[in-house]
Design brief:
The chain has four helices and five strands, in the order βαββαββαα. By secondary structure, the chain is α+β, with helices and mostly antiparallel strands. Helix 3 runs antiparallel to helix 4. It binds flavin-adenine dinucleotide (FAD). The site of flavin-adenine dinucleotide (FAD) has 19 residues, from helix 1, strand 3 and helix 2.
Length: 140
């Protein structure tokens, strides 16, 4: 069964660009082997990640990610069975939110600051779909 899991977490302290590169590099390597696709956003000290793949594989991967000391306060915000992937071509794309992306976030949010914890599952799905169209992933 194909599922999409979206969760948010807060970075534990200030992560250097090398830390973020490390996360993206191991994600791309591991996820490609697992058949997991998705995207990772980082803004305002908050990670927002979308993981797509087989339900048992995504479940196991999410539990592995939870053990990582580089983030805290994880919360699953959306979990759904899906017919098709949004990120078929990305083993894990990093999307850093810039000023240019602010209107996309504002479209789905009541506040100006990036805070995905406050978004409803439907809004998160639409935000990721918009990001696929408008954002270019940064590769490690
Ligand atoms: P390696 O790739 O060999 O490790 C890479 C580097 O990260 C090394 O420098 C190592 O020292 C460091 N490192 C590894 N684990 C930790 C840790 N727990 N704490 C601090 N430093 C560490 N992994 C995925 O496979 N797929 C994902 O989609 C994914 N998403 C992530 C999202 C977030 C927000 C975070 C914080 C981490 C994510 N990770 C993901 C990373 C995951 O938590 C593990 O670190 C990674 O899977 C370990 O891969 P590896 O065994 O191949 O280690």
């Amino acid at each position: 069964m194909l599922v999409r899991l979206i969760y948010a977490s807060r970075s534990a302290g200030v992560l250097s660009p090398i830390d973020v590169k490390d996360i993206v590099r191991s994600s791309q390597r591991n996820n490609a082997k697992l058949g997991v696709t998705g995207a990772l956003m980082l803004s305002n000290g908050i990670f927002l990640q979308c993981l797509e793949g087989d339900h048992l594989t995504v479940n196991a991967l999410y539990h592995r990610i939870l053990l990582d000391a580089r983030h805290r306060e994880p919360a699953i915000l959306s979990y759904a069975e899906i017919d098709q992937r949004l990120y078929g071509g990305w083993s894990m794309g990093l999307v850093t939110m810039t000023e240019a992306h602010r209107p996309i976030f504002l479209k789905y949010s009541v506040q100006a600051e990036f805070d995905p914890y406050t978004l409803r599952p439907k809004a998160l799905e639409l935000l990721f779909a918009d990001m696929v169209e408008h954002a270019r992933p940064i590769t490690a």
